[in-house]
């Protein structure tokens, strides 16, 4: 895994852009300054998707993406395997004119990040700047020369399949920070996201679909990412041979 900060971003960008173009699919994962737990606890069984989206919209508008991981998967045809190229981007929003982003930090999430060795100095001192499209237009700044938004635009331009786990939170944060302000309507959000990324695969949703076919293996009792990784690492070859 390659650590990417403001100091090596420009040097690495051409390689990252080419890897996205050459990839078969790309996966992303975000870390942010708050927790999705409050959002989960606020959900009601009878909530409509519109109501759930509005709760998630509030989360995305209050917290920042402080780190985003990106992996480009390139097929090795001879070996019939995928070669993975992984980059870990440390981010911090641009201060530009009157644009001076205010954001919240949640104590429980800061504690979680600290326990997992998150580098707060890199976040503040070495974070890659970014603006979304609306902010760029307002301040006439060339984001392609500025920061992480150009990676986002490479992903959009490539139209490669985008993979993640429990992706609705990630998609809302990515939309708000790198594209434009989240719309009021879930229907509009859904339409716009699929214009940006035509094929999205959520491994958490996929695990729900696989639970019934694989119940005889007793593999998918839990659908957290660590549990899924352990299950398919241990039994993946067995499942493939029994297809």
Q: Helices and strands in order, then pairings?
A:
Elements: E1 2-4, H1 9-22, E2 25-32, H2 37-42, H3 49-62, E3 65-76, E4 81-90, H4 107-115, H5 120-125, H6 133-139, H7 149-158, E5 162-164, H8 167-179, H9 186-196, E6 200-202, H10 203-211, H11 225-241
Parallel strand pairs: 1-4, 2-5, 5-6
Antiparallel strand pairs: 2-3, 3-4
Helix pairs in contact: 1-7, 3-8
Distance between the termini: 33 Å
Question: Could you say which structural class the secondary elements and strand pairing correspond to?
Answer: alpha/beta
Total E-strand runs: 6
Count the helices. How many? 11
Low-pLDDT residue spans: none
Strand order of the largest sheet: 1-4-3-2-5-6
Shape: globular
Largest sheet: 6 strands, mixed
The sequence of SSEs as H and E is: EHEHHEEHHHHEHHEHH
Q: What is the residue-averaged pLDDT?
A: 85
**Over all CA atoms, what is the radius of gyration?**
19 Å
Helix content: 40-55%
Bin the strand percentage.
15-25%
Structural features, described:
By secondary structure, the chain is of the alpha/beta class. The chain is 48% helix and 16% strand. It is built from eleven helices and six strands. It has helices spanning 9-22, 37-42, 49-62, 107-115, 120-125, 133-139, 149-158, 167-179, 186-196, 203-211, 225-241, and strands spanning 2-4, 25-32, 65-76, 81-90, 162-164, 200-202. A six-stranded mixed beta sheet has the order 1-4-3-2-5-6. A hairpin with a 4-residue loop joins strand 3 (65-76) and strand 4.
